[in-house]
Fold:
Amino acid sequence: MTDPMVRAELVVKSFAHHDVLRGIDLEVTRGSVVCVIGPSGSGKSTLLRCINRLEPIDAGRLWVDGELIGYRQRGERLYELSERELGRQRANIGMVFQHLELFPHMTALQNITLAPRHVHRQQRADAEKRARALLERVGLGDAGDSYPRQLSGGQQQRVAIARALAMAPSLILFDEPTSALDPELVGEVLDVMKDLARTGMTMIVVTHEIGFAREVADEVVFMDGGVVVESGTPEQVLMAPRQPRTQEFLSKVL
Amino acid sequence: MHGEPAPGPGDPPGNLLDDPPAAVPVVATSTAHVPPALGLARAATDGRRPAPLDATPVRHPARWAAMAVITVLTAMFVHTLVTNPRFGWSVVADYFTARTTLDGLWVTVELTIVSMAVGIGLGTVLAIMRLSPNPLVSSTSWFYIWIFRGTPVIVQILFWNFIGALFPTLSFGIPFGPSFIQGSANDVVTPFIAALLGLGLNEAAYMAEIVRAGIVSVDHGQTEASLSLGLSRMQTMRLVVLPQAMRMIVPPTGNEVISMLKTSSLASVIAVTELLYSVQIVYSRTFQQIPMLLVAVIWYLIVTTVLNVGQYYVERHFSRGSAGSTPTARERLRRGLLPTHADPFRFRPPEPGLPDNPNHR
Structure:
């Protein structure tokens, strides 16, 4: 039994006096796709942001790829990691955002090569060669010189996926990657994600696309009120939910 | 419903990309007073382009009246320029490229460039300090801005000029310890240095606010996207945030440069021989105040005009990748002079293959 890609133990996160995560336990097996579903405000996005430490957690422990996120442990004591070490951990965790967040002043190619060049110190030519291959892979072989605003939302999100892949991460987090897109553009982004899942990439996908979860997920996690209410295979959670809260949610979205 | 999207969704009938651009029904109704083009209705359905719209433009009598008034006033102005001998155009011509004038002009340009360099560099540091989570750091920046924006720049220039009265000797060394270099303040802070300090340190306070506004204008999601890729906070600031903030920073900074060119004339009060003081030296001897001031005026106008052109190109560089990029000079001229039916918010022709036509949104 290999250790999981992500392990969360009783993760708690509060904003002001409001507990957003109230003790999350989660294990994500290497190479698996976990879809996180749940109503808005259930803490799904916050969980993702804690996993790559865009938000520090208030209690609990998080491991990614065997490494404790955000801290070094010596004996009983935790020491916060430096900026540089955090960057190294984050570089191993890709993230795709709901609001696309491509850098608008850079072409698609520059967006993709930025981190490989400045974090992994790759040569420009090598980084660009890899970036072109990645663009090809997301079906945008000729979009390298386009600025984000010249691309459709779906194309931008595919570039964002290529940008995350360029760092060769062990894990990619998707935060509602299709929620901000026109309905007709959703399919092309989901197709790219399905391809990615087939290559064995470990993915955590916060999504409202129940169809995608049913088809692609190895595990579906239903969250509500800052806790994991129910998790299991798509068949279990989506077809035969045991918890009344899950049944209620699914009856509204399906 | 959040159903799974069909693998190949059929294009809705009103697909924006595939519609022939001219086949909009509005065209047919708005050409009512024009002889109806034959076959217009058919053209709309079979996708051919109907005849271009040809309408008589609205008349603007008030504009014509304004033009007449302006023409008369301009004629009067030119007349006095030519006929009033006290303008002393021959004196202007004599001194326009005289050695003293050009030396003064060069000092003005030097003051402007170095003061702005100090202002931009220190201002950026102050802006980043101001946004620091450390309260001591951010309040230090606030205090600096409070002092240097809260007092007149001419007072600051005079203050630096007389700094020797406060600290007769300046030394560089370990605080409360030995000093390595030492010198008389009056030797170190010459009038030129005093002017630089006055103008540059004052400018830094203004630039700090400009840079801060620019940084704050960049969406926080951009910072998060950059951090999530493993870039450090410094790299994120340098590679992602500041380049985007430049779009907000550059236009007011251009104004600051032009303003600095003019404000540098205040250095004349501490006898720095910049452009204004160098013509003052001449007219204190010849009493040709107006012609000599005209020499300065014309040079200031020439340099500010050059700076305006430079500002325009710099702005265009930093607006790359953004909607509504700065128009070319020719496009601006055309939009300003010719009546047009074009959307006033659009400067660039739509890029081919993109759903860029606002009528089709």
Q: What stands out?
A: The interface with chain A takes residues 2-7, 9, 221-222, 224-233, 235, 239-240, 243-244, 320-323, 351, 354 of chain B (CB under 8 Å).
